[in-house]
Predict the structure.
Amino acid sequence: MILLENVSKTFQADGKVVEAVKNVNLSLREGKIHGIIGFSGAGKSTLVRCINLLERPTEGKVILGDVEITALDEKELREERKKIGMIFQQFNLFASRTVFQNIAYPLKNSGLSRNEVENKVNYLLELVELKEKSGAYPSQLSGGQKQRVAIARALANDPKILLSDEATSALDPQTTKSILKLLKQLNEKLGITVIVITHEMQVVKEICDNVVVMENGRVVEQGDVFSIFANPVEKITKDFVDSTSNLTKVHELINENAEIVRLKEGECILKFTYLKRDASEALVSHISRSFELDVNIIFGNIELIGSYPIGGLISVVSGRESSINDAINYLREKNVGVEVILDARVSK
Ligand SMILES: Nc1ncnc2c1ncn2[C@@H]1O[C@H](COP(=O)(O)OP(=O)(O)OP(=O)(O)O)[C@@H](O)[C@H]1O
């Protein structure tokens, strides 16, 4: 377990006090991928840099496994830090060294023989699928390749934790996907704990097991990714979740009085969302048949998190008012969230 107990970090800059991290308590399970999400300035980088003491907390304790690293002296800390690798948005490679030399750099004082270093670097190059670039210089690599080198270098000392600070922010969407896939593979293959800082909920959706939401230096919400996507509580979390789907577009369409959302009398627009992992029956056809409703799905967004569907559908539903109400109750019992977005039903 990675434990942060009452961790705060305050900076003094230009005579001003900045409380970058405020009294954070977190426990992050080993072997999982954790996302830390928040807007710029929320304190994500500072918090994560407190995990390897690149920033020393002003208050609080950081405990990795059974070692309180905030209580170690410099020499002990140097050893403990080897268990933590880190990658950055700007890659931070040595421009004048080859790919091989960059990856070998952290092994300088490891006591390994030249042969052992060579074997290790070749193994790491294979792991990140970059064997053919061993002799290239960073300037000869694409962004995605540079990040693969940085990942290999971060893994040189067999760390137990890999910290990723916006590692995909400078990459195009396709390269981002391939780097995220690599992080997931490394997590599965090596059992390494990965902590990913991001401001994109899509990154969280793609690879994380758990997510921590930060706002103004505080952790405002956390949980497993499915639960956070299904039931976000805080406004900021809802906004992040909404940013990964098109469902909120229905409000824009209503404001624009778009034809697709213009209702006839007796119709309503409902938003159905998955709330639990087991909500995967043929619910739309069931309510349509059992409650004699017409359900016209106008758009939707359903994806898989792990192997469970998450997301929702926007539908125009018509039928008897009482039948619609019965269908809504039925769906809610089946762990489907139902929100009436627009209602043109009239009570008879
Ligand atoms: N070394 C420093 N000195 C002074 N203030 C700092 C320092 N590092 C960070 N801060 C301040 O602490 C706050 C949190 O910064 P931090 O970089 O942790 O946020 P972030 O969520 O990672 O943002 P971003 O997504 O933009 O990287 C900001 O107000 C920032 O200006």
